[in-house]
Structures are given as C-alpha cells and as structure tokens.
Amino acid sequence: MQIRLHWAVFGLVVVQFLFGDGMGHAFGQYMDTGEKGFTVLVGLHILIGLSILVLAFWRLGLRFLHGVPAPDPTHSPAQILLARVIHGGLYVLMVALPVSGMLAWSLGSGLAAGLHAGLRVILVLLILLHVAAALMGQYVKKDGTLTRMLKAEG
Fold this sequence. Notes:
By secondary structure, the chain is an all-alpha fold.
C-alpha cells in the first residue's frame, strides 16, 4: 500500500504543477478584485491539494504502524541520513503545501500565498534530489532502488 500511495501522491503532485497556473491566476484576480473566481482549474487544484494532504497522513500512518524497509546495507551512514532528511522534508511539504494553499485561498492571505510559492520551489528541489538518488542507486550502484519502489517484496 505504501508503494501505491507513493506513486499516487507523485502523480497528483505532477498534476498540481501542470495545472497550477489556473489557481495562481485566480488567486491574483482575487487579490486584485476581492472576488474569488471559481473555475474548474481552481476546483481541481483544491481537490487535488486536499487529496495529497489526506494521502500524506495515510502514508504517515502506515509508516508509523508498519515501519519502512530497512536502508540498503551498502549505503553509508551519510547516505542514510540524507535519505531520511529528504523523506522527512517531503512529508513536511505534503502537509505544509496544502495547508498554506488553503490559508491563502480561504483568507486571501498574500503571506500564505508567498509561503506556498516558496514551499513549491523547495518541493521541486527535494523531488529532484529524491529522483537523482533513486536513479543513481538503480543505474550507478545497481542496488535495485527503483525495483524496490515499483513493486512490493515478497
């Protein structure tokens, strides 16, 4: 289930980035006029953001109840620490981004919107690090990282 949730959240995050301009435009209009323009893209952005938040808590619950796979024994303590920091950051952002977006939209808060925009940049950087580490593990170290991320063992 954790693998399925991982890829579901990934897909939803990609959709958010592909169609997020609609929400940004609507928010800018809201700040200029004081009126919320509710479009299909706005509704989609809100629905997907809420879905990411729910799935993030579901993932955290599963991690808490069932744990996570042990780190690859060939990884150094520094690699393990970096992986934990990146994963922790991703989980924080999977909660903080939807919350900051909700605050920005519901309160008309430019501060929350600015925070939301800044967190998006950090999310992209962490995703790039996460993907680079997975690709390096799979194709440079040949440790089966992607294989483990694509299907459950056992």
